[in-house]
Design brief:
Length: 335
């Protein structure tokens, strides 16, 4: 015969038993799921960077992290997980819990170029991550040695056509964004150029200044000091519009190079399975962070263009550039 439980003592006993079972579950490692919003409250958020400390991606993340933390109301720190051109960091976020405590501060080459040229790429950027927010975009600038007979982009194109295969441009390595910027320029302008890969942008720039090679594409922020110092001559930026840090330098499009709008960007990504509320919260905080006056002044002076937008805008640009680099790299040999 069953009797209803009315006893206050019995109810207290059941609560105590439930508490015991909860403690046992934690002790043996059973994970009790909580809403993603609750999991992130007050906890430290990690921005995962796929490159070593001191580089441009790491530096940008360290400027962004404290401002984002202020907007989220919780601490944000940068953690470097270098390797495989950023792919190691991306893969670690793919495997992370979808609670917003680990986010990938991604550079576009990892998301759009590496899938086509990197054997170590172990995840699909189009399918395995959740776009959260775009952060900034940047352009390359084509610079030449000061002692070249050509001084403008049209003069360079004319010289290269008259001397096919004799002009050399440097890059940070095979498959680097400035390598492919040069490859696309050659295709769009109908040129035959000689690519010389280096182990980074710095040695390539040294050889441009020294005259060992004639030219290279470099990030505006990296090249600006050499341009301002008169050590190299800028001919064109690779973005559709002029860059605020180099307002005197025209774009490739202005100078007649059609279908050439090449730039890089940084964006925030999380693992799959994040709640819509959490995605919205992080995106809104990122947008507010990009309004910070000190952050804006610092990045604009470095040639960056702040990119406040939504996750769909970030996803669409990634898909577009992923398809572009698939076309550019098709049939190319990479070591």
């Amino acid at each position: 015969m069953k009797f209803p439980i009315h006893s206050r003592g019995r109810r207290a006993g059941l609560r105590a038993a439930a508490a015991t079972l909860w403690g046992l579950a934690v002790t043996v490692g059973v994970q009790v799921q909580m809403p993603a919003q609750a999991q992130t409250a007050g906890a430290t958020v990690k921005l995962i960077v796929g490159y070593a400390a001191g580089g441009p991606v790491d530096s940008a993340a360290r400027v962004f992290a404290p401002v984002l933390g202020r907007e989220l109301g919780q601490p944000v720190v940068v953690e470097n997980r270098a390797g495989a051109a950023g792919a190691v960091a991306g893969q670690s976020v793919v495997r992370a819990q979808p609670n917003g405590l680990e986010m990938y501060f991604a550079a576009s080459p990892t998301m759009t170029i590496s899938p086509h040229v990197l054997k170590a790429m172990t995840f699909d950027p189009l399918k395995d991550l959740t776009p959260l927010a775009p952060i900034l975009s940047y352009a390359n600038v084509l610079v030449i040695n000061q002692n070249q007979p050509f001084k403008t982009l049209p003069e360079l194109v004319a010289h290269a056509k008259a001397h096919p295969g004799q002009l050399a441009y440097g890059s940070a390595g095979m498959g680097a964004s400035n390598h492919l910027s040069g490859e696309l320029f050659a295709r769009r302008a109908g040129l035959s150029l000689n690519h010389v890969p280096y182990k980074g942008n710095a040695p390539a720039m040294t050889d441009v200044m020294g005259g060992q090679i004639q030219m290279m594409f470099d990030i505006v922020g990296g090249a600006k000091a050499h341009i301002d110092g008169g050590k190299v001559r800028p001919l064109a930026v690779t973005s559709k519009e002029r860059n605020p840090a180099l307002p005197q330098v025209p774009s490739m499009a202005e100078l007649g190079i059609r279908d050439y709008d090449i730039g890089g960007w940084y964006g925030l990504y999380g693992p799959l399975g994040m709640s819509a509320d959490l995605v919205q919260r992080i995106g809104a905080a990122s947008t507010r962070a990009l309004q910070d006056a000190e952050l804006r002044a610092r990045w604009i002076a470095q040639g960056y263009v702040l990119w406040a937008g939504g996750p769909q805008e970030l996803a669409e640009r990634m898909r577009r550039e992923h398809a572009l680099w698939a076309e550019v790299t098709k049939g190319m040999a990479f070591e």
